[in-house]
Amino acid sequence: MKARVKWLGQDGMAFVAESGSGHAVVMDGAPGAGGRNLGPRPMEMVLMGLGGCSSFDVVLILQRSRQPIRDCVVEIQAERAESDPKVFTKIHLHFIVYGNGLDPKRVERAIQLSAEKYCSASVMLGKTAEITHDFEVRTAE
Description:
The protein is α+β, with helices and mostly antiparallel strands. The protein is built from 3 helices and 6 strands; from the N terminus they run E-E-E-H-E-E-H-H-E. A 3-stranded antiparallel beta sheet has the order 1-2-3, with no helix packed on it. A hairpin with a 4-residue loop joins strand 2 (15-19) and strand 3. It is elongated and about 55 Å long. The termini are far apart.
């Protein structure tokens, strides 16, 4: 796996990150910290990556177990250390899974499998942060 990050210029702290698969995203710093708020902060990208990795697993596990999943949203809250390096110390993922007739025990198991076995981002971040999960099952509209 490869990635490339390029600074967009000397008048700010914006960078373009390009993945090995050819996708790009702009990252920037906060105004007042040299940034112009053109994109998410790098540590926000880490949280979004965790959410994507975990959601991908949960949806795939539920589909493979023939659960009638229609949508999946994960809301993430995180805390960081006060001093440098400001690593994540606590991360909470709240899954909202939509479907008609979903088995809550299977949803819980899919989240557990992602957290403990399949999501590389979760396992990696779990080395420095306490990661917790909860979920709710909602009827699909």
